[in-house]
Amino acid sequence: MLKTTLRPALTSRLSNGSSFRTLASAATANAKKEGDISNSFASLAGTDNAVLPDRYTSIKHSLISGHEDAVLSSFQRLLRALRTSIPTIKSHGSATIPSIPFSEISNPPASFTAAHRATGVAIIRSVVPPTDALSWLSDLRAYIAANPTTKGFPADRPAVYELYWSRAQVLARSHPNMLETFRFLMSHWHNASSPALQGGSSNHLHTAAPISMSHPISYADRLRIRPPGDTSFALGPHVDGGSVERWEPSGYNGLSGPYSSVFQGNWDEHDPFEASSRLGVTSDLYSGAGACSMFRMYQGWLSLSSTGPGEGTLKVNPLFKLATAYYLLRPFFVPLNPDPARPGFLDEGNWMLEPEGSSKIEGAWPGHGQELSASLHPHLELADTMVSVGQVEPGDYIAWHCDTIHAVDAEHKGTGDASVLYIPAAPLTEGNARYLYRQREAFLKGEPGPDFPGGEGESRHVGRATEGIFEEGGGDVEGARGMGLGMWDPSRFADVGEAEVMERANRILS
User: Fold this and answer.
1) Most buried of the four, 83, 88, 213, 269, by CB within 10 Å?
2) Residue 219: is it exposed, middle or buried by C-beta count within 10 angstroms (0-12/13-18/19+)?
């Protein structure tokens, strides 16, 4: 058994007056094989031409059976909407992406909120001081140099490192400004009324699903230090959070899940910011290296360098809701005239429901991320609609909704390293608390978190972070809680959904 050594003041605050909780030492074993980020994508792993099993034919049929006409009509509306929206993306480019200074997130302008809800992307400027960001980058370089066994991709000249527990990463994830940014972003979501999930306490009347967007939790992801000239880390358009799971009934729950309106022929009614419908989702059915089992409302990264378009940075697709509906419905349709060079190939009249079912789900393969391409998803016109996030400086934070298509510059044409810490925004849910329990054990051992390729990780690394990091500077209470190193106080919250999920999380993590 491992007991923490936090300062008494912090210990008292974290455990609400009692001694700091003793952490269980028996971790759930990380069953994933050793590897790197290339194992996350079928195109990089060499399996992108594989054929899905026949059972996916039945899965697809069950999603639209009985409302085929509505699905066809909705797909035609979608293609018309895309044709109308894409010229705006082409003409505005990076200017489509809304940004806001960290100093203004407590009272954001309506224009930012509207643009964010429309695009699913946001840039929060100056979340941490540039000096802090640059200092973290310097510390990371020293950490890597001190631990030459650190794995990365590509192996000969890494751009992405299999590091999760450096001091810089832990400090950044738990920084008060980062936590405030997460709360701000997640406030754009809403929690529809729903009955309590099985196993809930009877202490509250359940008027909302058990989830808290006010209590962000930590998800330990990798870091990137991409050198100039790199062409290896050229991730094309993709969506994380699983792939085939979006169609599987045991994944995103089909007609009772977050995409139900899309599969029923009403993509216009799809609400990408509704949270409760995602609580029962299993986004990692196949324990893949590229699958995330935690509910992340936003993926994101904190910039540690000054980086512009074409300099090894992020691209996103601001079509957002339209793009989501398109990649969900695309597997059900085929062109009458399959020659993309022929006039009218993209016209809605050239596309019909599959006359005979098939198992194809374009760009999806079990255990890997969802990938998109111009040939498989032609109506998205990805060459023109994947736009750079623009110029970013050290301390800026970029966030994109969990359904957003994103990519990386195929070539880093800049002169300096493009460096970021991958840090998503994740709410407190029962499922996330269960992941947090396992991740906490990985942290204490210095091993990769449950979602990532396994092995000994940083267990032998010199200078990795330990739980004692929260003693420094008086400790960061919310940062420690977010890592599962402290308990929440449900009595302080009137929202019954928040109180309920804190009770459940405390039981899991105690």
Assistant:
1) 213
2) buried
Residue 265 DSSP SS3: coil
Scan for tokens 């912090």, then name that residue: 10
CB-based contact 277:62 (threshold 8 Å) = no
Amino acid present at 145 = A
Q: Which residues pair with 256 in a beta bridge?
A: none
Round to whole Å and give the CA distance between 133 and 362. Answer: 39
Q: Is 182 helix (H, G, I), strand (E, B) or coil?
A: helix
Spatial distance between the Cα atoms of 24 and 17, rounded to a whole number of angstroms: 20
Strand partners, 238: 371, 406
pTM: 0.91
Residue with the two structure tokens 């840039």? 123
Query: Do the Cβ atoms of 140 and 461 come closer than 8 Å?
Result: no
Which has more pLDDT, 342 or 195? 342
Task: Please name which of 230, 224, 222, 238 lies closest in space to residue 42, comparing C-alpha atoms.
Answer: 238
332: helix, coil or strand?
A: helix
Q: What is the DSSP pairing of strand 298-303 with strand 314-316?
A: unpaired
Biggest CA pair distance of the chain: 73
At residue 195, does pLDDT exceed 80? no
In angstroms, the Cα distances linking 292 to 150, 219, 403 are 22, 10, 13
User: Which secondary-structure segment (H or E) carries 316?
Assistant: strand 314-316
**What is the C-alpha to C-alpha distance for residues 240 and 497, in angstroms, rounded to an integer?**
27
In the 3-class helix/strand/coil scheme, how is 62-125 assigned residue by residue?
Answer: HHHCCCHHHHHHHHHHHHHHHHHHHHHHHHHHHHHCCEEEHHHCCCCCHHHHHHHHHHCEEEEE
Please check whether residue 127 is in contact with residue 178, taking contact to mean a CB–CB distance below 8 angstroms: yes
For the cut 80, the answer to whether the pLDDT of residue 475 exceeds it is no
Count of CB atoms within 10 A of residue 57's CB? 16
Q: Taking a C-beta distance cutoff of 8 angstroms, is the pair 6, 475 a contact?
A: yes
**Residue 207 in this model has a pLDDT that exceeds 70:** no
- 447: tokens are 């091993």
Quote helix, strand, coil % in the chain, to nearest 5. 35, 15, 50
Q: What is the pLDDT of residues 343-370, one digit of tens each?
A: 999 999 999 999 999 999 999 999 888 9
The CA distance from 76 to 375, in Å, is 19
Mean pLDDT of the region 235-247: 95
Pairing between β-strand 397-401 and β-strand 121-125 as defined by DSSP bridges: antiparallel
Are 35 and 459 contacting, i.e. CB atoms less than 8 angstroms apart? Answer: no
Contacts of 228-232 with C-beta under 8 Å, sequence gap 24+, read 228/312, 228/412, 228/413, 228/414, 228/415, 228/416, 228/417, 229/411, 229/412, 230/157, 230/159, 230/312, 230/411, 230/412, 231/410, 231/411, 231/412, 232/153, 232/154, 232/157, 232/159
Helix (H/G/I), strand (E/B), else coil: 308? coil
Dihedrals phi, psi of 13, to nearest 5 degrees: -70, -40
Rounded to a whole number, what is the distance in angstroms from the first to the last CA of the chain? 13
